[in-house]
Fold this protein.
Amino acid sequence: MKILRLANYLAMPWKNGGGTTTEIAVHPPGATAADFAWRVSMAPVTADGWFSEFPGVERSLAILRGAGIGLTQNGATIALTGASAPHRFPADVPTYARLNDGPILDLNVMTRRGHFTHRMQALQIIADTQLEFSAPTTLVFCPTAALHLSQGDTNITLPAMDTAVLEPEPLRITARAPTRVYLIEINPPI
């Protein structure tokens, strides 16, 4: 298990220059917005506007804080709030974002088609939960509370906003109160 600390995340401008993003993890290490194979990041969205386009990339987005956002692609709008499941969409299709009621903070996962696929789940952890997964790269992120993680012989407390990168073996998560956790699985293409 590897821990990625909030203090070490990398802040950078959006590809379209409209804001900033905080990169949590990227592969290969040191990759840029133009050449990553996969990337996990979070970003504040403070105004309505166009999302950056990423040719050949699939993207999932979840709302961490704020009243939510409406994403419009090809004339269809999907409404996302903090209670919504993460929404997956092609990052190379023009996407317009309209804030519901003030700024939000979002969590993004992006994978380059033909290199990797991904799945982001929002899980409600109540007390003690055992998870099974087989992805070669799996990340656990909790924006609001510390969690206790046990995997193999490793037992750690993961502070809010830090990220755990896990081995593909069973994981036990313990939370002191019901807590929303994001599980991100990254796989090679099928």
Residues 21 and 43 are 4 Å apart (CA to CA).
